[in-house]
Amino acid sequence: MHLQDLSRRIQQLIEQSEIVLLTKCERTTQRFSFSKIDSGKMAGLRASVLSFIAMVYGKEHSYYSEFDKVTHHIDSASSAEQGHEILLAIQSEIDGGWIFSVKKLVSAEIFADFLEMATHLLEQDYKDPAAVMIGSVLEENLRQLCHSVGIETEIEKEEDIFIPKSTDRINSDLAKAGIYTKLDQKSVTAWLDLRNKAAHGKYREYEKEQVVLMMQGVTDFLARMTAK
Predict the structure, then answer these.
(1) Within this chain, do residues 13 and 71 fall inside the same structural domain, yes or no?
(2) What's the burial of 213, exposed, middle or buried (CB within 10 Å: 0-12/13-18/19+)?
(3) DSSP bridge pairs for 155
(4) What DSSP line would sit under 141-209, residue for residue?
(5) Which of these three, 80, 95, 110, is where a domain ends?
(6) Which residues span the domain enclosing 134?
(7) Largest CA distance in the chain
(8) Count of domains for the chain
(9) Rounded Cα–Cα distance for residues 190 and 205 (Å)
(10) Measured distance CA(198)–CA(210) in Å, rounded
């Protein structure tokens, strides 16, 4: 999902929240008065927001636990107001582009771990699984790079049926968009070709030294892309 899609969806949820708040009414008993809202509308909003937060941030994120906690009483106007403020905070983060900045940092740490494992495999002379692992890290980074700059990673095969683009197509699209140079494109093509040979058992068509150079090249390439 692209940034504009997230921005559009969070705006829809905020509008839905505003509708819920419009149902606010005062209830009075002999001892005190309190504000209530339409519990049905609030239940629908709560389910939609929690689903959105789980998809974008994950259920372990503080936004998820906080929204879940403050909107537990679905007939309470105070709960709806607190939930609305959380939605506004999420909107500010998404529209400011911070969500992808954080995700890039987390992804960078995960990919660094995989590259470290690939280095260990090379040290133990396991060039083939190392090549596959390095290539997989490269491919996933290319797809994430597409998402961050608004390049589609799927093509429509039939109406409402989408299939993933090939990595070669993604590589070409990124170069055409000027995200990196034609020289980078050629290097990526060579690295992916080596990964494919390793994945398809063509172990005699490349040497360990080529995988070592692949590791060095991919590491440098990803560092430059992350710094952008």
Answers:
(1) yes
(2) middle
(3) 163
(4) HHHHHHHHHT--SEEEEETTEEEEPPHHHHHHHHHHTTSS-HHHHHHHHHHHHHHHHHHTT-GGGS-HH
(5) 95
(6) 100-227
(7) 87
(8) 2
(9) 13
(10) 12
Residue pair 142/191 in contact (Cβ under 8 Å)? The answer is no
pTM of the model: 0.54
Looking at residue 23, its amino acid is T
Q: What is the CA radius of gyration of the chain?
A: 24
Q: Helix (H, G, I), strand (E, B), or coil: what is residue 227?
A: helix
At residue 76, φ and ψ (nearest 5 deg) are -95, 125
DSSP 31: S
Residues 220 and 120 in one domain: yes
pLDDT per position in the chain (228 positions), as tens? 556 777 889 999 999 999 999 999 887 766 666 789 999 999 999 999 999 888 877 787 788 999 999 999 999 999 999 999 999 988 887 887 666 544 554 455 556 777 888 888 899 999 999 999 899 889 888 988 888 788 888 887 776 677 888 999 999 999 999 999 999 999 999 999 999 999 899 999 999 999 999 999 998 998 888 766
83 phi, psi to nearest 5 deg: -65, -40
Q: Which tokens is 38 given?
A: 């339409």
161 strand-pairing partners: 158
